[in-house]
Amino acid sequence: MRLDRDFLTPFALRRLALAAALLVPLSGAGVRGAHAADLDAIKSSGTMHVATEDDFHPFEFVEDGKPSGYDNALLDLVREKAPFKIEQDIIPWAGILPGVTTGKYDMAVTAVLVNDERKQTLAFTSPVAESTSYYVMKKDQDAIGSASDLNGKTVGVQAGSAMLKHLQAFDAKLKADGGSGIAKIVEYQSYPEAYQDLAIGRTDAVVNTLINVQALVNEKPEVFKLGEAVSEPVYIAWATAKGNDALVEYISSVLLAARKDGTMYELQKKWFGASFEDMPEAIQ
User: Fold this and answer.
1) Could you report the per-residue pLDDT of 3-13, keeping only the tens digit for each?
2) pLDDT tens digits, residue range 53-95?
3) Is residue 151 part of a domain?
4) For labeling, which of 42, 104, 231, 264 is most exposed (least CB within 10 Å)?
5) Do 110 and 175 sit in the same domain of this protein?
6) Model-level pTM?
7) CA–CA separation, 133 vs 212, rounded Å?
8) Residue 148 pLDDT greater than 90, yes or no
9) Same domain, 36 and 100
């Protein structure tokens, strides 16, 4: 399980966006107009064009030739309610957001991390998951009872990631509150390396998204245990072009109904091993 594709450098993202123009989707929509269709246009045409990712467990992936994962399960709920057909392209991440901003797709039905930069060009549905940074530690670690106990500890995190920024901000907060701060932040190229070092005691904790660390604890409960949040809540949502408010409202109404009847939380527990029942109804 990974959530690293949101954390490429801006230069790398620009290169990927350019390369995405050459990508051929695995199914359907093809190139359309310069603007994503609004809800009235979608109802008029009878078709909504969306893009999902090809290999991003557990959100979206292809299994036995069919789309699977959490987002695809939610998309099936929308299909059941929508008064129009939903045509889906399954493509690499690099082509999804550029496809939405250029109007090739009406919506990105994928795990888009919401941030201020993306709000400049995209509008977001009601959140579908939370991506807040937490720390994980060894099960027999007794010296860390709360997040404040990370003072003086060695903590691992992925190099260049949003989680690194969260950890650095938390370190600053520890110092501002009168603590010594984190003794050493160890940056890793991949999380398997970080977890291995944690397991053998080279670090005291590792910071990653709640989805990832919860999955690690569920997989190896005899080795690891979950700590506390070290960042403010961060949310994941589906995205459309900025200004497409009616479409956001409609899709959000379906997602919120799935929250109200518990279906979304059941799917979260199935795919993530945790549910996020304190999410806001809308992205601010």
Assistant:
1) 545 644 333 33
2) 998 888 999 999 999 999 999 999 999 999 999 999 999 988 9
3) yes
4) 231
5) no
6) 0.78
7) 9
8) yes
9) yes
